[in-house]
Amino acid sequence: MKDLKIIFMGTPEFAVHCLKEILKNGFNIVGVITAPDRPAGRGRKLQQSAVKQFAVEHNLPVFQPINLKSEDFLMDLKRLRADIQVVVAFRMLPKVVWAMPKMGTFNLHASLLPQYRGAAPINWAIINGEKTTGVSTFFLDEKIDTGAMILQEEVAIDPEDTAGALHDKLMHKGAKLITKTLQQIEEGNITSTPQPESLSLKEAPKLTKENTKIDWTQDLDKVYNHIRGLNPYPAAWCILKNNGEKLKVKIFNCKKEYAVHDLPNGTILIEDKNLKVALKKGFLKIEEIQLPGKRKMKVKDLLNGFKFSEEAKFL
Question: Is 197 within the bounds of a domain?
Fold first, then answer.
């Protein structure tokens, strides 16, 4: 058993894989901090976070503070007497929390910092057509994702990668980077460097209804990157104008077909059970779509019952 006493903070599946890797490498987790249980689903039953489920299964002490500055929670943290805290996909911490351990608090971020600081680095790297991204560990400070860098590793983005596929690549790479960081800290040979200042920083803001909408005036490559960068969650969306109706639809898997044509952007073509959309530089072949109130489905299944008018168009 290793001597370093660690508090782990995280909530989703991405964080679970990191926590699992820390345990597998024999580190001593003295506490796990995660989000409170929340009502979910049609029955509004309380749902535990993925991190809590894993922690309970492995008999780790779990804390679920609503207020990170509450006296009770701060006393709980002090009693754990952690040497260091590890944060993965959690929430902003007040200084009274991140500054508490003698060795500080470090975070795993799913980008090559200082690029893509913010809430959605995986999505924006794909949306912007990047060929590479990566994972970074850094010490927390007063600002968001700006603290001193510890370690980084690159990850290639394949041309067909969706946000889901890249998420899994970064999750595995990030888990290894965390344990490597902890090993260096335990051995006392950790070094950290200030993040480089750059005038051309790309940001990764929170995904919203506005910035997830498909802009059909863009060219084929940009629309393709936008859709795969939001697949499977939260999904790119647009308005389908069909038979006098306007329907909000979500689009998932798609492929590019480069071609020369003179059709207006957004024009829909139905050919041999295929749904194509005209764009600058070619056509976007849509393979998965979701209509309002329906489940996501293959386009070929949709075309068995859904009729597109000759004037149908994506807006």
Answer: no
Structural domain count, the chain: 2
What is the percent of the chain where pLDDT is above 70? 100
The whole-angstrom separation of Cα 178 and Cα 9 is: 13
Number of helical H runs and strand E runs in the chain: 8, 18
Residues 57 and 108 grouped into a single domain:
yes
Q: What is the per-residue pLDDT across 119-149, written as a single tens digit (0 to 9) for each?
A: 999 999 999 999 999 999 999 999 889 999 9
Q: Domain end: 187, 207, 230, which one?
A: 187
Query: What residues are paired with 52 via a beta bridge?
Result: none
Average pLDDT of the chain, as a whole number: 95
Task: Map residue 259 onto helix, strand or coil.
Answer: coil
Query: b/e per residue, 82-118, with b = 16+ CB within 10 A?
Result: bbbbbbbbbeebeeebbebbebbbbbbbbbbbbbbbe
Burial 290-303 (b: 16+ CB within 10 A, else e): beeeeeeeebeebe
pTM of the entire predicted model: 0.94
Output the pLDDT for position 42.
72
Q: Residue 72: give the domain boundaries.
A: 5-187
Q: Which residues on adjacent β-strands are paired with residue 86?
A: 8, 106
Give the tokens for residue 292. Answer: 């309002």
Write the DSSP string, 94-133: PHHHHT-STT-EEEEESSSTTTTBSS-HHHHHHHTT-SEE
CB-CB neighbours of 282 under 10 Å: 19
Residue 298 has pLDDT above 60, yes or no: yes
Query: Quick check: 108 and 174 in contact, CB under 8 A?
Result: yes
Query: What is the rounded distance in angstroms from the CA atom of residue 30 to the CA atom of residue 81?
Result: 9
CATH number at residue 44: 3.40.50.12230
78-97 pLDDT, tens per residue?
Answer: 999 999 999 999 999 999 99
Q: β-strand 105-109 against 38-40: which pairing, if any?
A: unpaired
